[in-house]
Amino acid sequence: MTITVHYLNNSRAQRILWLLEELEIPYEVVRYERVNVLAPPEFFKVHPLGKSPVIVDGDLTIAESGAIVEYLIAKYGAGKLQPIESGSLDNLYFSHYTEGTLMPLLVWRLILTITPGRFPFIVRPIARGICNTLVTRMIDNRLAQNRDLIEDHLKKYPGGWFAGGSEPTAADFLMIFPMEIFASHTHIPVPESFEVYVKMVHDRPAYKRALEKGGSYAYAKP
Ligand SMILES: N[C@@H](CCC(=O)N[C@@H](CS)C(=O)NCC(=O)O)C(=O)O
Question: Which parts of the chain are coiled coil (predicted)?
C-alpha cells in the first residue's frame, strides 16, 4: 500500500519526503498551496487541525511531524536511521526540542513580522513598532541563545549528524526545517556550521529526490 503525504507548500512536510526517500518507501504527494500563509480549507478534510504534514498509511491518518518521523522509522526503518548508542540521548533531545522549543520561536517571529501588514494603513507604523519591539526583546534574544546551543552541539559532532554516527536519525529529519530557516530566513547571524549542516543534507541524493517529488520549496534549491 502506498503512503500518501499531504504536503503544504514551504512546510515541515519536506522533512517527511526526505525521510521517505532515505527509507526508499514508495509514496505519493498531495500538494496544497497556502492561502494567506495558512493551509487551505481542503486540508481540514484530511485532519481536523489542518496542519501539515499529515500522512495516510492504510487505515491510519497520522499528524504531527515528530510522531510521523518516529512512526515511519519504527515501522519501515528495518534498523536503518537509528542513533548509535552514545548518541541516543541527543537523538531524543533534538527530536523533541525542535517542535517543543525552537519552532515556536520561529513561528512567533514569522507572525510578528507579517502582522503589521494586516493592519489598516493608518495604524500600520504603530503596529510595526510594537511588533518589532516584541521581536527584538522577546524572540531574537532567545533565538540567539538557541543558535548558540545548536552551534555548541554541532561542534561535538563536527560535519556530522545531530546524534553523531554515520547516518541521519530522527533528530536530523526534525531539525532540518528550522536549520533551513535559520540559515536563510532570519536576521540572526548564524555560524558557518549551520550552512555546512544544511548543505550536507541538501547534497544527499534522497533529499534531491524529495525536492523533485514535492515541487518548489523556498528553503532549498532544486
Ligand atoms: N508541530 C506540528 C506543526 C504543524 C504546523 O504548524 N504546520 C504548518 C506548516 S510548517 C502549517 O500547517 N501551517 C498552516 C496553518 O497553520 O494553517 C508538526 O510538527 O507537524
Answer: none
Q: What is the pLDDT of residue 186?
A: 67
- Does the beta carbon of 12 lie inside 6 Å of ligand 1? yes
CA of 23 to the centre of ligand 1 (A): 23
Q: How far is the CA of 63 from the centre of ligand 1 (A)?
A: 10
Q: From atom 4 of ligand 1, which residue's Cα is the shortest distance away? A: 51
Query: What distance in angstroms lies between residue 44's CA and the mean position of ligand 1's atoms?
Result: 12
Q: Half-sphere exposure of residue 193, counting CA atoms within 13 Å on the CB side?
A: 16
- Tell me how many degrees the CA angle 194-11-180 measures, rounded to the nearest 5: 10
CB of 195 closer than 6 angstroms to any ligand 1 atom:
no
Rounded to the nearest angstrom, the distance between the alpha carbon of 1 and the centre of ligand 1 is 26
Domain map (residue ranges) of the chain: 3-81+208-214, 85-204
Burial class of residue 124, CB neighbours in 10 A (0-12, 13-18, 19+) = middle
178 lines ligand 1 (CB under 6 A): no
Helix axis angle, 170-185 relative to 141-156, nearest 10°? 130
Average pLDDT across each block of 10 residues of the chain; the chain has 222 residues. List them in order.
Answer: 95 98 97 96 97 98 98 96 96 98 95 93 94 94 95 88 96 97 82 93 98 95 78
